[in-house]
What does this fold into?
Amino acid sequence: MMRRTAQLLIGLWLFGASIAMLLRAGLGLDPWDVLHQGLAKESGLSIGLVVVLASVVVMALWIPLRQRPGIGTIANVVLVGVSLEATLAVLPTPTHLAWQITFLLTAVVGNAVATGLYIGARLGPGPRDGLMTGLAAHGVSIRVARTGIEAGVLAAGWLLGGQVGFGTVVFAVAIGPLVHVFMPLFTNPESEGEHCEARRDRRQYPSRKGRTDYRPLVHRADQT
It folds into this structure.
């Protein structure tokens, strides 16, 4: 448990730091952070606080979906925003394009590593992951749920003044394959009970073309 908790905390802190690097790169943000930035501009609140408040609102949407938060869910709500603000306080803003691109690529890889760490700890999904998997549990395909949610928050964030750009495209294209690489590296072994549940989930979410499907891992995390 101590190892899983440490892995969770490291992953969440890195997740917040990667968002800060995306912001400092200035080349465009991932969909959710386009929304967070837009809300921060409109409200005058810091983006870290907006991330925390948005997480609470998203968790409220779990109620009709009957999703249950885990320890990792609560830690996600608090720690990502704190890490984001702490990193922004010490991270310089790059002034040359080469450094902006370096920040962008480092942020995308760091975000994928962070995702593998905190989901692989099996202590509960993040609020946004839980919303997606909650919809999936009620008959909406993962692809439709994720695409619909992220398209919606991206459009809303852009209308509020959030930054959409080259970095948004790079993040969208690269994050899935990178998470697929890092997830198995950081996933903790299943207990006997989790193993039985995993067999059930693999029947519910069959993999395609021989690829490992990590959607059940996120789905099961809210049961820990």
